Amino acid sequence: MSLVFAGIASHAPGITGRAHMADADVVREFHGAYRDMGRRLAAAAPDALIVVSAEHFANFFMNNMPAFAVGMAGEYEGPIEDPAWLGIERRKIPGDAALSGRLIREMMQTVDVAYAEEWKFDHGIMVPLHFLTPKYDLPVIPANINCQGPPLTPLHRAWAFGEAIRRAADSVPQRIALVGAGGISHWPATPDSGKINEAWDREFLASWARNDRAAMLSYTDEATYRDAGQGGFEIRAFIAVAAAACGRGTIQHYRPIPIFAVGCTVASMEIGRQAPTCRT
Amino acid sequence: MQKFLFDVNRDPGLQQRFLADRAAVLNGYPLSAEERGALMAGDVGLVYVLGANGQLLMHFAALLGMEWSAYIAAMREGVARHGPVRAGIYAMTTRLDEKVADV
C-alpha cells in the first residue's frame, strides 16, 4: 500500500549490553523514548518493517562488499554477537521472502542492490528490534548500506536508495514501516569509545529534521572522519530514511551517553509526498 | 587476519574450535608471524595496532572473555607499546592518559 511509518534510532551495542554501567535515570528516559517509538510504529499497523542499518561485518566482508544489500529470507537469526555481551537473547526473527522479492525488484529499477537469502543480524538491527518490536512478531526486511569498509557508499547514493525504498514501498499492497539505525558522531570500538561531538550531531539532526538534502549530502568522508569519527559514516542510514519519508522530522530524544559510545537518538519523520518530488 | 576475525565472529563452531586449539585454526589462514603471534596470545592491543577493524576486534575480545574496561585498556596499551594504529579507519585520537566514558 505505502510507507506508513519512518524513523531513525541509535543501534550501539552498549545501549543494551552496557545499560547497567550508565546512570539509571538517563537509561530509563532513553529506553522509554525508544519503546515509545515502538508503540507509534505499531499504531501505524505495518505489515512489515524495513530496517536500514550499517552492519559491522556480520554478513558482508571485503571479499565481496555490496554498496547496498537487502534481505530476501523467510527467517533470520540474531544476534550474531554473544547474547550475554549484547544483552539480547539469540532468536529467530520472521521475514517475508515474497515481499522482499517484490520490493527488491522495484528498488532495482534505480539502484543496484544485492540481495541475500541468508542474513545474521548483528547489533545494528537487533538493538532496534529489542525496543521497537520486542515480541518479534512483525516481519523484518533488513537492508544494509556499506558504512564500514572503504570505499564507502557515496551519500548521494544513500539518498537514491531511500528514494528507491519509498517507491518500492508504495508499489506493494502491504503497509511498510521504515527505520534507519545507526550513529551520528562516534568513535566506537576504539580507545576513544565514548567520545561524542554533540555540536556536530545537533547540526546533522537539524538538517535531517528539516529534510535539507543539500546539507545532509554536503559532508565529505574526510571531514566526517575528522569531526565525527568512523562511526559518523553511518549517517547514510539516516539520509536514506529522509529520502524515503520526504517529510519533516521530529527529534524525540537526543542525549550523549558516553558509556553507550554515541549520542542516543530517537526520531521520527512524517511521510511526505512521494520521492523524488522531495527535492530541497 | 581480518578474515579470521570475520569467520570466527559469525561461526559458533569455529569459536569452540579456536578456544580448544588456537594453532590448528590459525593454520588455515595466511598470517604474518606478528599477526599469528598476536592472535595466539590473545593480544588485543597488538591486533588493534596491526589495523584490525574495530568492530571485528570488539567481538573477538568478547570471545576471549574480556570485560569492557579491560578491552578498552588493552587497545590503549597496545598503542603505548607498539605505536599508532598502522592501517584502517579505527585509529586512536585521544591521549594515552585520557579516560573516555570513565573507562
Total number of beta strands of chain B? 0
Helix content of chain B: 55-70%
Structural class of chain B: mainly alpha
How would you spell out the order of helices and strands of chain B? HHHHHHH
Characteristics of this structure?
heterodimer, A: 280 residues, alpha/beta, 8-stranded mixed beta sheet, two-stranded antiparallel ribbon, globular, B: 103 residues, mainly alpha, 7 helices, 61% helix
Structure description:
By secondary structure, chain A is an alpha/beta fold. Chain A contains ten helices and ten strands. In chain A, the strands form two sheets. In chain A, strands 6-3-7-2-8-1-10-9 form an eight-stranded mixed beta sheet, sandwiched between helices. In chain A, a hairpin with a 4-residue loop joins β9 (249-257) and β10. Chain B is mostly helical. The longest helix of chain B has 15 residues, at 68-82. The interface between A and B is medium-sized, with 32 and 30 residues.
In a few lines, what is going on in this structure?
The complex is a heterodimer of chains A (280) and B (103). By secondary structure, chain A is α/β, with parallel strands linked by helices.
